[in-house]
Amino acid sequence: MTELKLVRLLIVGITLTAGLGAQEATPGATEASANTTAAAAAVATGQAEAYVPDFLEHLVDALLALFDVRESGNTWQHYGIAALILVGSFLLRRIGTTLIFAFFKKLAARTRTTLDDKLFPALEEPVKAIIALLGAYAAVKVLKLAPQTDMVLAHAATVAFTCALFWLFLRGFNTVLDHVHLIARERQLGVAAFMPWIKKTLVVMFVVFGVLMIAQSMGADVKAFLAGLGIGGLAFALAAQDTIANLFGSVVVAIDQPFKIGEFVQIGSHAGLVEDIGLRSTRLRTIAKALITIPNKTVASEAITNLSRFTQRRVEQVIGLTYDTPAGQMDAVVEEFRQIILAESEVDPTSVMVFFRDYSASSLDIWVVYMTKDPDFQAHMRLRQRINLAMMRAVQARGLSFAFPSQTVYLDGDVAKRLAGIGNQDKPVT
Predict the structure, then answer these.
(1) Beta strand 313-321 with 347-359: parallel, antiparallel or unpaired?
(2) Residue 298, exposed/middle/buried by CB under 10 A (0-12, 13-18, 19+)?
(3) Distance between CA atoms of 37 and 13, rounded to whole angstroms?
(4) CA distance 338 to 369
(5) Interior CA angle at 246 toward 241 and 251, to 5°?
(6) Mind listing the pLDDT tens digit for each residue in 54-88?
(7) How far is 93 from 195, CA to CA, in rounded Å?
(8) What are phi and psi of 282, to 5 degrees?
(9) What is the layout of strands, in order, in the sheet containing 304-306?
(10) What is the third-level CATH fold of 248-306?
(11) How far is the C-alpha of 147 from the C-alpha of 154, rounded, in Å?
(12) 3-state DSSP call for residue 272?
């Protein structure tokens, strides 16, 4: 801090010396050194933070000294200098910014990204507005106004410059968010569906922050307002906890991206095509074309199965042959089934398993498992159909039969004998 004060003393001393030299060269330039003397006095008393002369005041004082303006009131020189500043700022706004931004646009055209191509045109108008405000404020500062008018002018300038700066940042912020949204859509990211409301939320927060900054610069007690807002926000949160839970659920879906629009998913007991992802709910279109609306808090808490993101599809079958199949034939059929599956190029050969597995109640069971390389459902079903038909032909070619649920009932005892006798009596005597 000591070094900082020494530097300030040195700067003010140099400024004071320059002001005294100008006063000797122009005896009537007392007003030109008034701010410098005030600054030196403030630093000498250790109150440099209370008064810091700005560049605009020095510029106005230098112009008044240059034109040797001695009168205390507004003269034609004052109005002439004000008009000169206005014209200069207008030329700088029209010509200077055009040339500068044309140069930046040429540089942006040479880069790979398109963000700078959009950013510089978005910032051009706010920069022009800031230059116009600077020129207007400098022109008014030349004139001698009443203290009350100066105070109103200072507050108006604070609000105007703060609004212009926030407009500048807001334009840049919007451009960046639009660029991110475009990239998300091109890459088909799940967050693309949430970008519109993410943008609105961030813009609202940005605007609220800007309003609070302007209120703070105007002397308002922002801390008390924020404290009251916190109490009101707590009451609102308690009253709208379901809505807030849905909003947080949508944020979780946006961050985790378990699905996106157009994918077929199962959320809890509901399955369907994702048709819309909103702030409050997610909508599914079922196979029966019914529309299901699920609150996002339920989506965030339920297990989600994304049926559109298979890397492969697994097929598991049990093929039953009748009990009259000989052991040799069974061994040959199992091997033939394995070769039929391995002959398909769409099957992952490392996943193929074919075994005579069980003696079931009415069949000899052959267990078949394989994985398809293509996760597409229709391609998987076409492959499965080809393999099933080939297995059917192999069984028919060997004279074997597929088993089906059946029962054989054996009767014994007096009832069975009587039934057998009744059956024999029905036979004709030859």
Answers:
(1) unpaired
(2) middle
(3) 10
(4) 10
(5) 125
(6) 556 666 667 666 666 655 566 676 777 778 777 88
(7) 35
(8) -120, 135
(9) 291-295, 281-285, 270-277, 264-267, 304-306
(10) SH3 type barrels. (2.30.30)
(11) 10
(12) strand
Residue pLDDT, tens place only, 12-62: 343 333 343 333 333 433 343 444 344 434 433 433 333 334 556 666 667
The answer to whether residues 406 and 362 touch, using CB atoms and an 8 Å cutoff, is: yes
Question: Is the Cβ–Cβ distance between 127 and 167 less than 8 Å?
Answer: no
Instruction: State the angle between helix axes of 195-217 and 147-186 in degrees (0 to 180), rounded to the nearest 10.
Output: 170
Q: Cβ(13)–Cβ(40) under 8 Å?
A: yes
CATH 3.30.70.100 fits 317-397, yes or no: yes
Which amino acid, one-letter code, is at 340? I
Give residue for tokens 């390389």.
373
Q: Report the alpha-carbon distance of residue 291 to residue 283 in Å, rounded.
A: 7
Cα–Cα distance between 393 and 400 in angstroms, integer?
A: 10
Strand order in the sheet with 313-321: 313-321, 364-372, 347-359
C-beta contacts of 149-157 below 8 A and 24+ residues apart: 155/218, 157/133
Is residue 80 left, alpha or beta, with left meaning phi > 0 and alpha meaning psi from -120 to 50?
alpha
Neighbours of 44 (CB within 10 A): 11
DSSP 165-209: HHHHHHHHHHHHHHHHHHHHHHTT-GGGGGHHHHHHHHHHHHHHH
User: Does residue 375 contact residue 311 with C-beta atoms inside 8 Å?
Assistant: yes
